[in-house]
Amino acid sequence: MNQKRVFLIAVMLTLFLIANCDLLGGNKAPSKPQAPIGPDLRGIGVAGSYTAVTTDQEDDSIAYQFNWGSATDTSAWSVFVKSGDSVTMTKTWNTAGSYQVTVRARDIKGKVSDWSPPLTVTVRLNQNPTTPAMPSGPGSGVPGRGYYFYATTTDPDNDMVQFRFSWGNGDTSDWGGFVASGATDSVFHTFNTGGLYQIMVQARDKLGGESFWSEPLNFYVTDTAYPYTIALTWNQDPRDIDAHIWTPLIEGDSWHIFFGRHGFLHTAPYCSLDVDDVTGFGPEHITIARAAPGEYIYAVHHWAGDSTITTSGAVVRVYHYGDLIRTFNVPSGTAGAHWWWHVFKLNAVSGEITVLNLIDPEPPLPWTTDQRK
Questions:
Q1: How do residues 95-151 score in pLDDT, each as one tens digit?
Q2: Which of 76, 104, 132, 272 could connect to 214 by a Cys-Cys bridge, CB 3.0–4.6 Å?
Q3: Which pTM was predicted?
Q4: Are 354 and 258 members of one domain?
Q5: Whether 51 contacts 37, CB under 8 Å
Q6: Are 274 and 337 in the same domain?
Q7: Are 204 and 258 found together in one domain?
């Protein structure tokens, strides 16, 4: 037998062994996948996404095939992916019923795993959630600080719902967790640049039905373009002290801006409180977006919690176009529960600040009982 014939026989034998290595124990099927991961409730005509994952003992690339609950309803094989990587496919059912969704894997050499355990998917008629109410939350804030926004709606089928928020700048949140129909959910978000953001919310039920987007909440993020920002911070106790400001006459009215009346930045009184912090530390920001002639009066009130206003560690910082111009530290001394710190008067047009820095049981201006917390 000449060398050429020996070489050809060796090549053919090698190719045979590669192609049939599983017959000789050299290739094993991928591990049987776990049950597919995805929603177990779907509405008729609503797509659901289902994910499969497994590994191959030889670390070969693998593809996946789903069976959607009947012998004739099987997906095409997916593209090959690395062992241990997942594949996701979508499925829409157009008939109500209960479907046993399974998946299997095939390695690149053609060896196929057993079918996975089933995921039972129930498909039924579904009514979409009611369009959520306009999100609730503060009307203004400052860059770099996070704020909570709240959403609620009901579902005609009493299904659980989840929410996502559109932040008014092209960004949309992920879907949140499911809550009961009629319950409220919240999300925490930070804006990094100033401007007007129209925040909307959308609901989705457990079966995948989606509502329309809500009416927008106008949220103003103040930046250094605004004449004055007044920041209040304090210690953990008392847990709730409040920033108050009284404006001069603006478009025929004097305004008291506080937790019960946050005000507005782009309309009268052009002054707004961002948030009512009731768990200590703050900050609470009052922003003056347009300076009006006359005097603004700023004060801090101890509303609730242990300690007093004089032992609160409260600090007030006044910023003019983003630059810190004054800092006030609460004076020491005797104070009772719910006393006030009268901090300063401000002529926002001239920039003149008149220091008050007084502790008193009463506010600097008369107020009515309906302004109490």
A1: 999 999 999 999 999 999 999 999 999 999 999 999 999 998 877 777 888 888 999
A2: 132
A3: 0.57
A4: yes
A5: yes
A6: yes
A7: no
